[in-house]
Amino acid sequence: MNRKGLVSEVRPDTSKPTAFFETSGGRAYTSLHSALTPELKTLLAGRIARALAVFCVDEIVIFDDGQSKQRKAVGNSHSQNENGGFTGFSNPGYFLMHILSYLETPPFLRSLLFPMHPDLKFVGTLASLDMPHHLKRHEWCPYREGITVKEQTDVEMPKTPRKRKRQEVESKEASLLDVGLPQRITVPVAIPPKTRVTIKLPEDPDISTSGDNPTVGSVVAPSVPREEAGYYWGYSVRSASSLSAVITECTYQGGYDLTIGTSERGSPLSELGQCTSDMGQIPQFNHMLIVLGGVAGLEVAVEADAELQKMGLKEPKELFDYWVNLCPGQGSRTIRTEEAVWIGLMGLREIVVNKGVR
Known about the structure:
By secondary structure, the chain is an alpha/beta fold. 27% of the residues lie in helices and 18% in strands.
């Protein structure tokens, strides 16, 4: 059955919430140097984004491991040929954030929030993330992502001058939003144009093809769909100037209560959480951080981090609660970025499900 033949009433099953805990991933952006063309750099970013979506990661942090300056000093064969604003070679951290942010955004909002840019030239070749907030026009969900539009809400003027003045004030405190439905949504709060917001719709809205009587919704925090209904609502992207900044600039209240560093010199991932292991039992957590280094590993990130050097920290494992090897006995001398992300998130999936506080 459809709402007036337009919006499907089939609702996702939220009896088993997808993500009430928080999982964050830290990733050194110098790993993009292994991709030699714009197409390959875009493909690498797309594969990372797919992993973030599949495993319900809430945050991705792109940090500088201190190696990018050394690479620039040596020289890059692409630097002289780079033109048109493409940042994949000159600023790989920005490029990765640009692609990941673009892919996380619902498709109908992308052209409104992201101007045309050379970084986005090949994103059309990437697989869709198809996350719960990437709703199609005919799909129904009590929450949606939207963008404020320039038009003001049309408030009917009362007859009396006193009431007219009050209504004029109220009209300035309302905003009109495009949320990907046939009609726009009104919210009773003033929001600057072209601002992305999360909207909660009424339980039984009258969604129709007509825009004469816009539905009134409410603005909520992006975490509300997950906390109230169990919907995985995408990931946020932030940058960090160093490895230590990944942790010290955490946006979650109380910080990360479980941190895991990765290295081929760490303990096997399979031993994590086993009673017989030296690592012991994994405690319950609210915010878990998984950190993956670049090609040279996290060791070079520690050496390049001035704050960690002031603290006298020499070994990266001292920075984390657990220090693990994602793939013991690997046949290749190196594991690529996109491979490490998938291996790590898959290997930690059971721990996340069983120990994450819901």
